[in-house]
Design brief:
Mean pLDDT: 92
Low-confidence stretches: none
Helix content: 40-55%
Shape: elongated
Largest sheet: 5 strands, parallel
Number of strands: 24
Strand order of the largest sheet: 3-2-4-5-6
Length: 766
C-alpha cells in the first residue's frame, strides 16, 4: 500500500511571473514558500550577504564575552563536541578559529562506546585539571548536573548547542541555542551555530573560510536546507570543490569525487558516512585531526583509515540488518506492534542506529534496534512522519538509564530485565499517539506532468533549486498512466530497474534504484513518481527519470484486468475448493460492515472473491464508495507482512493468516458460477465418448474440451470424476489421460461430482 500525496499548493497573486523564471520553476518555488522576485533571487542565487547577524541568537553576547575574556587572560580553552559529523565539524570550526586568533585551544570528543553522548561528570572533573574554560558544541543543553559540577569546581562553561532545551536550563556561564529566545537561527545545526560564534567574535571574513565544514554538517545533520542554511550549503559546496584541507581532499578522492561537481547527495551518501564511521567504530578525535591538519601525509593517512573503517562499518551494518530483519520477520505482529524492536547480543552500538534506519526504510514503520551487553540494552530509534518517537518513548521514561532525541530519532538505555515491559508500553504509547494513517507509507510529490514535459530544459531549470534536502526536497513529479516499454533488472543481483516509458507518443528512459525486485509485480501501465535528471554520454545530453516509486495505474483496474485474464482459473478454483458453506450475509449488511472496517483502520481486513463476477461487482462498489485506496489487491495470498487491508482473489487456505477479519464477499456468486459450469450427465457421457474414440493417450486438456464442446473447467471435472470411477488414469503434470477398461458404474459414485452437485443444490435452497 502506498499513498501519493500532493504537496499543498497555495493560490493567489503570482508575483514571480515576468521575472525571468519559467512557469514550471515558478510553480516549484511557490511550493517551497517563495513568493516574491527578491525571495526567488535569494533562493536561486544565495550569497554571503544572506548570512544573518549572529548577535540575534539567544545568549550570543554572553558567550562572546566569556570567550574573549578567556583569550585576554590567556586561559586554556577546550572545545567539547559530539561524535557525529555535526559535532566533528563544529569542534573543528571553533578550534581552528580560536587557534587562528591566538587562543590556547584544544578539543575533545567523547567515546560513543565508553562515555556516550554529551558531557559526563568524569570528563568535567578531568578537564578542570588542565583547562579554565570548557566550550561545548552540538551538545550540553541538557547537561544540568554537569553544569552544576563545573560551577562547583570552578570550571567556566559555555554551552553552544542546537538541540531542544529542557524546561530548566543548565547553570552555565553562557548558553547559546537558536531554540531559545525569539528563535533566531532556528534550524541551524551545531556546526552552523559554531560558525555564528566565529562570525560574532571576528566577523564574516573569519567565518567564510569555514563554510565548507558547516555545509558538511548541515547536510549530514538533516536540518532544513532553507533560509541561512541554504546559503551555508550552497557557498560551502563551492569551497569543498577546491578545498585546501589535505585530509578532506584525500577523502573526496576515496569517494570517487575527485574532479566532480559535488552536491548535497555526495555529502549525505558518500562523505558523511566516512566521517561518521570514526565515531561509530573508532575515535572521532581522529576526524577532527584530519580536518584541522595541514600536513598532507597525516591528512591522507587518516582519510584512508576512515575509508577502511567505513567499509568495516558497512559489513557490520549489513550483518546486523540481516539479523534484525530476521527477528522482525519471525516475531513481529504488525497489527499489534506499532514499533519494531530487535535486540542483539553484543551488536556494535555505533551501528544500531543505522540498522534501525534500514528497518524503518524497508517497512515504513518506527523501529528500535538494541545492543545488549552485560545486562544493559543500548538502543537507537528511527521513526516515520506521524509518529513522534520522542513523545512515544517519553511515556516509558521511568525505565531508562539514559534517553534523548527528537520526533524522528532517539537514543535510549535500559536494563535488559525491563525489555518485556518496555515492548508492551512503547507499543501502547505508539498506538495512542500516532496520527491517523501514520502507518500507511506515503510519497509526497509536487505536481503531475505529461512525459512530453520531461526535457533537458526542465531538468536544468529544476537543477537551480539545489542544494536539495530536508525542507527543500528535490522536485518530485508524477506521470500518470505511463506504459512500460522496458523494465529490466540491472546492477548487482538485479537490484535496480532500467526503464523506458511511453505516454501519448512521448517516451523517456530512466532508472529506478533499489526497485529491481518489483519487476515481476509491475503491470503494463503505471503511475511513475520521479525526479527529472540529465544523462550525459559521449557529449550528448538527454532527459531521464530518476524513478522513486512505480505504482499500478488505477490499482483496482489493474487487479480487475488480472482477474479477467484468469477467467479459467476462477472456474478451476471453484471445482477444487467448493464445500457446503453457511448462508450468505445479506449484501446490504455486508457492505456496511466492510465500509466500517476499511474506514476505521488501514490494517487487518482480508476481503476474498472466488468468482470473476464477484470480483467485478465488488470492485465497482469499492470504487463508488471511495474505498479503493484503503486496500491492496492480490491473487492467492497477500505478500505484505504488514497486513494491510486487502482484496484477494482465488485465496489459498492460509491467505487470512494474521488478519483480524476474513470476509468472503461473493458467496451468492459462487453458487451461480458453480451451477453455470457444472456439466450434465449427458455432457459427461459425451466427453467419455470423445475419450474412447481418441487414438492413444489424451495429451491436451484444451483439445479435449474443444472436441467435447465443453469449457475447460467442465472437462476437468469430468476427467476427475472418470479417474475416481476407474474409467481413466489421469496424470496432471504433465497432463495425460489414459483410458482404462470399460466397466459399469454410476456418475453419482464420484465423490467430487457428488460433493459439487450437493453444494449447487444447497445453494439453490439457501
Amino acid at each position: 500500500m502506498l499513498r501519493l500525496i500532493k504537496r499543498p499548493e497555495e493560490t493567489g497573486e503570482d508575483r514571480l511571473t515576468g521575472c525571468g523564471i519559467s512557469p514550471q520553476l515558478a510553480r516549484m518555488l511557490r511550493l517551497r514558500g517563495v513568493r516574491t522576485p527578491e525571495e526567488a533571487r535569494r533562493f536561486l542565487s544565495p550569497s554571503a550577504d544572506d548570512l544573518s547577524d549572529p548577535s540575534a541568537l539567544y545568549g550570543m553576547d554572553a558567550a562572546v564575552r566569556e570567550i574573549r575574556g578567556a583569550m585576554e587572560r590567556r586561559a586554556k580553552i577546550i572545545v567539547y563536541g559530539d561524535y557525529d559529523v555535526d559535532g566533528v565539524c563544529a569542534t573543528t570550526i571553533l578550534t581552528e578559529a580560536l587557534r587562528a586568533h591566538g587562543a590556547d585551544a584544544a578539543y575533545r570528543i567523547p567515546s560513543r562506546h565508553n562515555e556516550g553522548y554529551g558531557l559526563n561528570p568524569e570528563a568535567v572533573r578531568e578537564i578542570a585539571k588542565d583547562y579554565d574554560l570548557l566550550v561545548t558544541v552540538d551538545c550540553g543543553i541538557t547537561s544540568i548536573a554537569e553544569a552544576a559540577l563545573a560551577r562547583e569546581i570552578g570550571l567556566r562553561l559555555v554551552i553552544i548547542d542546537h538541540h531542544e532545551p529542557p524546561e530548566r536550563l543548565p547553570q552555565a556561564d553562557a548558553v547559546v541555542d537558536p531554540l531559545l529566545g525569539d528563535g533566531s537561527g532556528r534550524g541551524l545545526c551545531g556546526a552552523g551555530v559554531a560558525l555564528k560564534i566565529v562570525q560574532a567574535l571576528w566577523g564574516r571574513e573569519a567565518a567564510e573560510p569555514l563554510l565548507e565544514l558547516a555545509a558538511l554538517a548541515t547536510v549530514a545533520d538533516m536540518v532544513p536546507l532553507t533560509g541561512e542554511n541554504r546559503a551555508i550549503v550552497s557557498l560551502g559546496l563551492g569551497q569543498l570543490q577546491k578545498t585546501k584541507r589535505p585530509g578532506l581532499r584525500e577523502l573526496l578522492a576515496l569517494c570517487g569525487l575527485d574532479g566532480k561537481t559535488i552536491n548535497a547527495g555526495h555529502i549525505g551518501f558518500q562523505i558523511a558516512p566516512r566521517l561518521n564511521a570514526g565515531g561509530r567504530l573508532g575515535d572521532s578525535n581522529r576526524c577532527v585531526e584530519m580536518l584541522l591538519t595541514r600536513e598532507a601525509a597525516l591528512g591522507a593517512r587518516i582519510a584512508r583509515e576512515l575509508d577502511e573503517t567505513n567499509a568495516e562499518r558497512q559489513r557490520l551494518e549489513a550483518a546486523i540488518v540481516r539479523e534484525a530483519d530476521r527477528q522482525v520477520a519471525q516475531s513481529a505482529d504488525f497489527l499489534c506492534d506499532k514499533v519494531l524492536i530487535a535486540v542483539g547480543e553484543g551488536w556494535n552500538r555505533g551501528v544500531v542506529g543505522l540498522a534501525a534506519g534500514r528497518l524503518t526504510e524497508k517497512y515504513a514503520w518506527p523501529s528500535i534496534v538494541f545492543s545488549r551487553e552485560d545486562g544493559v540494552c543500548t538502543g537507537s530509534a528511527r521513526s516515520v512522519p506521524g509518529v513522534n518517537i520522542h513523545a512515544v518513548l517519553s511515556r516509558c521514561q521511568d525505565l531508562y538509564e539514559r534517553f534523548g532525541g527528537h520526533a524522528m530519532a532517539a537514543g535510549l538505555t535500559l536494563r535488559a530485565e525491563y525489555m518485556d515491559e518496555f515492548r508492551r508500553r512503547v507499543n501502547e504509547a505508539a498506538a495512542e499517539l500516532a496520527e491517523p494513517d501514520a502507518y500507511i507509507p506515503s510519497v509526497q510529490y509536487d505536481f503531475e506532468v505529461p512525459l512530453s514535459d520531461v526535457t533537458c530544459e526542465l531538468a536544468d531549470d529544476f537543477g537551480r533549486l539545489a542544494p536539495n534536502g530536508i525542507g527543500n526536497p528535490a522536485p518530485v513529479l508524477v506521470a500518470r498512466g505511463a506504459h512500460l516499454l522496458e523494465a529490466r533488472a540491472v546492477g548487482a543481483e538485479g537490484r535496480h530497474l532500467k526503464l523506458r516509458m511511453e505516454q501519448d507518443g512521448a517516451s523517456v528512459g530512466g532508472i529506478a534504484f533499489g526497485l529491481g525486485g518489483e519487476r515481476a509485480r509491475l503491470p503494463d501501465t503505471v503511475d511513475a513518481v520521479f525526479s527529472p535528471t540529465i544523462n550525459e554520454w559521449m557529449g550528448r545530453r538527454s532527459a531521464e527519470m530518476d524513478v522513486k516509486r512505480l505504482v499500478p495505474h488505477e490499482g483496482l483496474d489493474a487487479f480487475l484486468k488480472g482477474c479477467r485474464e484468469r477467467e479459467e482459473a476462477f472456474a478451476m478454483y471453484l471445482l477444487r475448493t467448493c464445500e457446503d458453506e453457511p448462508a450468505p450475509v445479506p449484501e446490504e449488511i455486508l457492505r456496511a460492515h466492510v465500509k466500517q472496517l476499511l474506514t476505521e483502520s488501514c490494517q487487518g481486513t482480508l476481503l476474498t472473491v472466488r468468482t470473476l463476477e464477484g470480483a467485478l461487482r465488488w470492485a465497482d462498489w469499492l470504487s463508488e464508495e471511495g474505498l479503493s485506496d484503503r486496500l491492496d489487491c492480490a491473487f492467492s495470498k497477500p505478500a505484505d507482512p504488514r497486513r494491510y487491508n486487502c482484496l484477494c482473489a482465488l485465496p489459498e487456505d492460509d491467505a487470512g493468516e494474521g488478519y483480524r477479519e476474513k470476509i468472503a464477499l461473493d458467496a451468492p456468486d459462487v453458487y451461480a458460477a458453480l451451477r453455470a459450469l457444472m456439466p450434465t450427465d449427458d455432457a459427461l457421457r459425451g466427453l467419455y465418448r470423445v475419450l474412447r474414440a481418441w487414438p492413444g493417450a489424451m495429451k491436451s486438456e484444451k483439445a479435449l474440451a474443444q472436441a467435447a464442446g465443453m469449457s475447460a473447467a467442465a472437462a476437468r471435472l469430468g476427467l476427475v470424476a472418470f479417474d475416481e470411477l476407474g474409467l481413466v488414469l489421469l496424470s496432471r503434470d504433465p497432463f495425460e489421460a489414459v483410458m482404462m477398461p470399460a466397466r459399469r458404474c454410476s456418475l453419482s459414485d464420484s465423490p467430487t461430482l457428488r460433493r459439487l452437485r450437493r453444494v449447487c443444490h444447497w445453494g439453490e435452497e439457501a
